[in-house]
Amino acid sequence: MQSRTAESQQIAEQTAPVLSEAPRAYVIIGTTGEYSDRTEWQVAVVSSEDAAKRYIEALDQQYQQMPPHWQDRRWEYDDEIKAHMSLDPSFECDYTGTSYFYCECPSLSDARIADLLASAREVQSCPGVSETSSAAIKSNVFSAIDGKPIRFTDKLGLVHICEGADVHRGVRLIWTLCERDVPAGKAWKLDKPSMHEVCLICLKRSNERAALASAREVQP
Ligand SMILES: [Zn+2]
After folding, report:
1. How far is CA 122 from CA 24, 98, 116, 153, 155, in A?
2. Could you list the residue range(s) of the whole structural domain that residue 34 is in?
3. Does some domain include residue 170?
4. C-alpha 198 – ligand 1 centre gap (Å)
C-alpha cells in the first residue's frame, strides 16, 4: 500500500512546459530520392498550419504542371524547371519524384529566447544522479510503469526518456537517459505517441539500448 502511494506521487500529470507554449512555426520541406540518395531541403517557414497546407498544395500543383519530358530529361531542362518552380528556389528532382511536407516547431522571440536560456542555466546547475544511488539501482531498472514509457518534461519543454528503479521499499528513483535527476512528482507516463521534441541524448541512448537488446535476441 505504501509503495502504491509513493508511485502515484512520483508519477504526476505533465506540467505545462514553457517551450511548448511558444507560438508555432511551420517549416515546409521538400524531399526527393530514396535511401542514401534521399535529400531534403527547406522551402519556407510560415506561421500557421493552414498556410503550410496551402503552400504545399500550390507547390504540388506547380510540380504536377511541369511537362513530363522535363522530368525525364531533367538535366537538359534544369533552367526551365527552376523557372517553373517559382515557389521552391531550391527545387530538386530525382527519379523518385519530389514531394513536400511540413514540420511544426516553436517560434522564438528574442525575449523568449532570453527566458529559456536563463531557465536552462538553472536546470544545468541541478545535481545529477549521485554515484551511490546509481550503483545501488543498476540491478532493477525499468523504463515503463503500467506498460507505459516514462517521460519527463524539463523547464524548456524538452521531453526526456526516463528510467527508474525502486531502491528501497516505497522509494522510487527516476532519472533521464541523459543522466538528469527527475524531481519527485515530475515524471509522467506516455499514453500515446506525442509531437513533443525529445532530448537528442535520450533518444540516442534509447536507440542504442534498443539495438543492443535486439542484438542479444538474435544471438543463439
Ligand atoms: Zn534527455
Report:
1. 25, 44, 10, 15, 9
2. 24-106
3. yes
4. 7
